[in-house]
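Weekly sync, protein design subgroup
Attendees: M.S., D.O., the rotation student, P.L. (late)

Item 1: inverse folding check
M.S. brought a backbone from last month's batch and wanted to see whether the design step gives back something sensible before we order anything. D.O. pointed out we never logged the input encoding, so this time it goes straight into the notes. Structure tokens as presented (150 positions):
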């Protein structure tokens, strides 16, 4: 049977700031993110299986990405944890419930890499993460491909 790629789109709203950046993105600002998740595999060939003809049930992919990415990052503020902003993070965390203090600069490029690691670890056997495309704006996005990261 043929190897097939399937894609599901997700969207979420997220704010971030780029700590130490030399431009306006050093300020807290938000984006309407669109995440395209493409997985690859061989469709189920067992006619008795309820997943017959599917690489992955889109509901399963929705649960993985929804639970591990969208639910975590939607309406959150993501900041890089540094030696200089510990007090800021503590203050924000005391006020806001969805603060994500991360060890990396929360650029589109770094976020798509983190998302790839997270999603790939959760996929069912026989299904591989092929690529991710994360739109930060309508005209700007970062892409991650498994073939570039093997």
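Designed sequence read out in the meeting:
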């Amino acid at each position: 049977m043929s190897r097939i790629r399937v894609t599901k789109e997700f969207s979420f709203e997220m704010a971030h700031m780029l700590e130490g950046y030399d431009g306006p993105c050093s300020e807290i600002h938000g984006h309407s993110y669109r995440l395209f998740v493409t997985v690859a595999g061989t469709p189920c060939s067992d006619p008795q299986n309820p997943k017959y003809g599917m690489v992955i049930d889109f509901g399963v992919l929705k649960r993985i990405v929804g639970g591990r990415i969208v639910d975590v990052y939607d309406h959150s503020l993501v900041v890089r944890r540094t030696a200089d902003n510990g007090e800021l993070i503590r203050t924000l965390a005391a006020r806001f419930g969805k603060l994500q203090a991360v060890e990396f600069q929360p650029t589109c490029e770094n976020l798509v890499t983190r998302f790839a690691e997270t999603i790939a670890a959760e996929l069912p056997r026989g299904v591989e993460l092929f690529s991710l495309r994360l739109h930060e704006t309508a005209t700007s996005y970062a892409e991650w491909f498994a073939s570039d990261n093997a």
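Discussion: Residues 4-148 form a domain with the Tetrahydropterin Synthase; Chain A fold (CATH 3.30.479.10). The radius of gyration is 18 Å.
Action: P.L. to compare against the previous round before Friday.
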